[in-house]
Amino acid sequence: MRWANKKTRRRQRHPHIVWVLLLGLIVVAWRLYSNYGWWYALWLGPGDPPRSCVLPRIESPPDKDYPPKIGILCLRDTGRPNLARYAQLERFAEAALENKKRYASRHSYALVVADANAGNRPAPWAKLPALRRALPQFDWLLYIDGDALFANPEPRLEALVDDAYDVVISEDWGGYNTGVFLVKNSSFVAKLLDDMWDAGTRYGLAKPNKWWRHEMPFEFEQRALHFLTRSETWQASADRYGLPTVPPDVAAPIRDRIKVLPQCALNSYLVRPRLLPQDARHRAARYARGDFVVHLAGHKGANKAALLEYALDHLVRREV
Ligand SMILES: *[C@@H]1O[C@H](CO)[C@@H](O)[C@H](O)[C@H]1NC(C)=O
Fold first, then answer.
1. Which of 5, 26, 168, 301 has its CA 20 to 30 A from that of 11?
2. Which residues form ligand 1's pocket by a CB distance below 6 Å?
3. 3-class DSSP state for residue 103?
């Protein structure tokens, strides 16, 4: 009894210690979660074995009467990044660009490095006018984001292009992802790129959401593609917030010109360590060893930088 009394007394004397410890634990847990980049990268380990959608290996440009002239386009921030969170990526911008240069030169594709300046819009919008300008020099043009890397240098782009379509892209659980895609030199694509840009002005798609109201899905120019194709994701937000939509008979012919490939063919993700449902679409999105491209989609700021460093050191094949 004396022992019990003593314990009770002690707890009464220091009740705040428990709360301080608990608060400390919450702060540490929160820091670990919000700066997950470094531990997540370590935890990722060597990744899963190669999957069936590894591209067919084409040793040299296919021997056709008319081999397609394929180029690669990426953006480079020349001025100050106009979004604070991109500043963290500057450290790795050169290494990421080097990865693209090596892939392009390995297969003798032209690499176009365009200025990531979209006037008063966030930098990713610059891919639209840049593609528009470069397109006439090529039959097909691959666009690849700054936070996407060629992880496996072997596949050739000839294995991806398909002249029955105008755009080749992949979809994640939210639909089209414009981090990596191919466009054909066609009047359809020229109009699509112009319409995407114009939708930014005409329908306010280039404006950020208000922080307290996530009205428009996605960010930047990807939003414009979802708008013009009236994707399920766009439609869901439109129903909820009364956003504008294009008529179905305008959207359907655009969707018909777009070929959707599995993500692991050209746009695998290092998926965020979130408590998401591990459904088939999330599993299919996930980068596995042997995949062509690894894209750090969805990660922001310091986490993206940590994962980009990890991908450059551990996922990208050295001999690219
Ligand atoms: C791309 O298309 C334009 C317009 O049709 C054409 O003038 C140009 O020659 C094409 N470029 C190539 C490389 O075929």
1. 26
2. 69, 136-139, 185
3. helix
